[in-house]
Amino acid sequence: MTEEIFKRDAYVSEFEATVVSVSGQEIVLDSTAFYPGGGGQEYDTGTMRGHKVVRTERKGPDIVHIVPGSDLKNGDKVWCSVDWSRRYDLMKGHTAEHLLFGALKRSCPELGIVKIFITEETKCVTVDRDLDWETIRKAVASVNQTIKENRTVSKNVMSKDDPGLKDIRMDMEKIKGSEITVVEIGDVDSAACSGTHVMETEEIGAILVHEKVSAGKDGFTIHFKIGWDAIDRAAELANNDIRISEILGSTPGDSVKAAMNLKEQADSSRKAVNTVLSRTLRELRGEDVNGVTVYGGSFPAADKKTFVDASDRFRASGGVSVLVSSGSSVSIFVASGSERVVSNVILKRTLDRYGGRGGGTKEFAQGGIPNADDAENALNDLVSDVKQALTN
């Protein structure tokens, strides 16, 4: 069994150990400060007698170091160095994640955690529901206050039977063994965790949530940055806010309100365009081609549903329709109620001519081409192809 130095002191980055097992590029030592990953925190890297340790992982009672191309053998004494810059960043990120989720959960007690991901490049936590930006802002402010107060971070090992665990944030199903390591951050947060952490919150520097994205069925992923990365990103976002304010003709403090007003106007305009376009499509007159009515036209950009509904209506009546929607790019909808016109085949010919992409079935196909200047030519080509199919 490997002695786990990182458990008693996460700040140890250099140490001497003895090689107890070598299997290809897998090296097991009698003791190690390399963290094998866990709790959402990525594994450590570094060097072992000058050889690169590219990964560390846990295998049963041992911790395996992946060391490609080494000449190490059983019994060798080796001097090892953990990549401290990387490890310290992960320690700070992991402690920040505890604080962030704890603050979010205080605002939303029913909030559940789905996944944690802490690497040098990406730091995020996936939660089981969406949270508004005001809730996130308040949580970040709370975390930064805790960072400024420089709360002590401590680790304690507790038995699974300890009644004190009822107040600890944990997922008992994921915990193996009879003991649980609990990370306490002052009187602010307590959670079961096997990862490495800083000793004082001030070491984190600062935290900033800079993105929230859908994680599908898992919920939403909240991305954050720490330290100077957080400060640099905050400065960049502040500059963007100033630029947006100038464009909207508002002050930086009012840019959100101005943007919301602009969105309301855009939504209202879009609704009006869709209403008028829907009426126009209903009144569209087709051309009889060998017993089949062919509908075609080029229209301003509008909601996709408006064109799909019209296409379904023309197809259901036994007709063939070619509808082109032109804005910054071009969307094309082809529908056929005739066995003689295969929608996806007709569409593909035009897409190939104009560098577009799309697909569908013989009854309905849709796609787009990148250049709005090609809209009319594409429409003419499509209508011509449809007429040719109906007259052959």
Task: Describe the structure in brief.
The protein has 392 residues and is an alpha+beta fold.
Q: Any chance you could write out the topology, listing elements then pairs?
A:
Layout (H helix, E strand, L loop, with lengths): L2 E2 H4 L5 E10 L2 E4 L1 E2 L13 E3 L2 E3 L1 E5 L2 E5 L10 E6 L1 H24 L5 E6 L4 E5 L5 H17 L3 E7 L19 E7 L3 E4 L14 E8 L5 E7 H22 L6 H28 L4 E3 L2 E9 L3 H13 L3 E7 L3 E7 L6 H12 L2 E4 L3 E6 L5 H17 L1
Parallel strand pairs: 1-4, 18-19
Antiparallel strand pairs: 2-3, 2-9, 3-8, 5-6, 5-9, 7-8, 10-11, 11-16, 12-13, 13-14, 15-16, 17-18, 19-20, 20-22, 21-22
Helix pairs in contact: 2-3, 7-8
What does this structure look like?
By secondary structure, the chain is an alpha+beta fold. The chain folds into three domains: 3-82, Elongation Factor Tu (Ef-tu), domain 3, CATH 2.40.30.130; 88-248, 2-Layer Sandwich (Threonyl-tRNA Synthetase, Chain A, domain 2), CATH 3.30.980; 284-391, Diaminopimelate Epimerase, Chain A, domain 1 (Roll). 35% of the residues lie in helices and 31% in strands. The protein contains eight helices and 22 strands. The protein has helices spanning 5-8, 84-107, 133-149, 227-248, 255-282, 304-316, 343-354, 375-391, and strands at 3-4, 14-23, 26-29, 31-32, 46-48, 51-53, 55-59, 62-66, 77-82, 113-118, 123-127, 153-159, 179-185, 189-192, 207-214, 220-226, 287-289, 292-300, 320-326, 330-336, 357-360, 364-369. It has a seven-stranded antiparallel beta sheet, with no helix packed on it. A six-stranded mixed beta sheet has the order 17-18-19-20-22-21, sandwiched between helices. The protein has a four-stranded antiparallel beta sheet with strand order 10-11-16-15. Helix 2 (84-107) crosses helix 3 and helix 7 runs antiparallel to helix 8 (375-391). The protein is elongated, with a radius of gyration of 31 Å. The mean pLDDT is 92.
